[in-house]
Amino acid sequence: MNFSGHLVGGVLAGGAVVALAVITRNTFVEVDSVNQLFSRQAWLSGDTKALTALFLITCFMALFPDLDLPSIQQRWFYRVVLVVLVVLFFMGQGEVFALVAILVLLPVIHKHRGWTHWPITPFLIAIMMALIFEYQRSTKSWVGGFSVDNVFLYLKTYWMYVIGCVLGHYTHLLLDSKYFSNIFRLGK
After folding, report:
1. What is the pTM of this model?
2. Quick count: other Cβ atoms within 10 Å of Cβ 102?
3. What is the rounded CA–CA span in Å between residue 106 and residue 64?
4. What are the tens digits of pLDDT across the range 2-61?
5. What is the rounded CA–CA span in Å between residue 185 and residue 135?
6. Into how many domains does the chain fold?
């Protein structure tokens, strides 16, 4: 599957995860949140932020396994990431800045179809993110150090983000599978 096919798959998976978050009331969306989405104050609503982050994480994970392939799409992806990183830096979002920087570099440290295509990868990434958040929390805390229990608490509390990582990544793997390759070849 090509980049645009994975992007469409990621958008569909992102929409499904956002719908799941709304249906399960993991993120409550009220009329005010929807109105703020289309106004200047869009980034003030916690619901809008959470749903946007959930959607973007799912789309990112749908593209993640192929970010190591040199292409025009890869260049544009990294240009967009650069803009996002600059915005995060000037907004003072150091933790999110570091997390995005780490995640976008991971695919290029190994060969294509290597560890980024493993079925366990999205779980490892979710655990890595929880470890980073717990490490950040423990270094800022006056009381208590690093706790593995808190890592599991992050995974339990933010389970929708884990679902987004997994669904986005598995969407990519499914679209790369021989079954889907054969279907799309028949249509040509």
Report:
1. 0.78
2. 13
3. 9
4. 888 899 999 999 999 999 988 887 765 554 544 554 555 544 456 777 788 889 989 999
5. 47
6. 1
